[in-house]
Amino acid sequence: MTQWGTAAWLQLAAVAFLTVFLHVPLGDYLARVYTSEGSWRLERAIYRIVGVQADGRQRWTKYLSSVLAFSAVSVLFLYGLLLVQTHLPEPWGHKGMTPALAFNTAISFTTNTSWQNYPGESTLGHVGLVAGLGVQAFASLAVGMCVAVALIRGLAQYQNDEIGNFWVDLVRTVVRILLPLSVVVTLILLVLGVVNNFHGPQGVSTIAGSRQTLLGGPVATWESIKLMSGDGGGAFNVNSAHPFENP
């Protein structure tokens, strides 16, 4: 067996081990999150800001309309932000995002389609990566989890036409599940050497005496939620095959 073959089998074994080891405690934690009656202080503050009644329950039609409304607003927000970031100086923005490409990207990342029709390092600035795609990586994953939970509730209590509150499920998914997991994964990526800064491209001299451009960006912070959400959109053109994203 070659060295690369051994590494592949070790990675497969590691994934299998983590899945078996974590599925019970993580599953139990998810169940507690979605069945808890109380709200955290941060969650209550968010509910007040957006005007949500946390104790209100929704039928499936209202839940569905909430999902669609949130997704529509997400598309418009991301579309506008991607257009605005083209007017910012590098590295906060780049000039390569046309209105058509911005709309294509907004649709893709809001629907978790994992379609990236541009080279990240020359098209997307730090603002677009963090405040745009980063937010949608959380939001699109959270929406998918909410829909799955609503389906489970509908199957488990089919005689009850109320399947929860989308806005409560959404906030809890982000605050109690995705943010903590992202912090842990980000710290692991930082230890492994993944780039995480707000620098632009920097020229350095190599040992051979030539010049090379090293790219910067909030990569580790973005990579953690990107890997969990499956929303694609690497900071660099080759995504997780780039050594700065996957050392």
Written overview of the protein:
It is a single chain. This protein has one domain (40-241). The chain is built from eight helices and two strands. The chain has helices spanning 3-35, 41-50, 60-85, 99-110, 120-123, 126-156, 166-192, 219-229; strands at residues 202-205, 211-214. The chain has a two-stranded antiparallel ribbon with strand order 1-2. The longest helix has 33 residues, at 3-35. It is globular, with a radius of gyration of 20 Å. The two termini are 23 Å apart. The model has no long low-confidence stretch (mean pLDDT 89).
Instruction: Give the total of domains.
Output: 1
- Please compute the radius of gyration using only Cα atoms: 20 Å
Strand elements, count: 2
Low-confidence stretches: none
Largest sheet features: 2 strands, antiparallel
Q: Please estimate the helix content.
A: 55-70%
Spatially, the strands of the biggest sheet line up as: 1-2
Strand content: under 5%
Averaged pLDDT, please?
Answer: 89
* Overall 3D shape: globular
Q: What is the H/E order?
A: HHHHHHHEEH
How far apart are the first and last residues' alpha carbons, in Å? 23 Å
Secondary structure class reads mainly alpha
Give me the number of helical elements. 8
Mind sketching the topology for me?
Blueprint: H1 3-35, H2 41-50, H3 60-85, H4 99-110, H5 120-123, H6 126-156, H7 166-192, E1 202-205, E2 211-214, H8 219-229
Helix pairs in contact: 2-7, 3-4, 3-6, 6-7, 6-8, 7-8
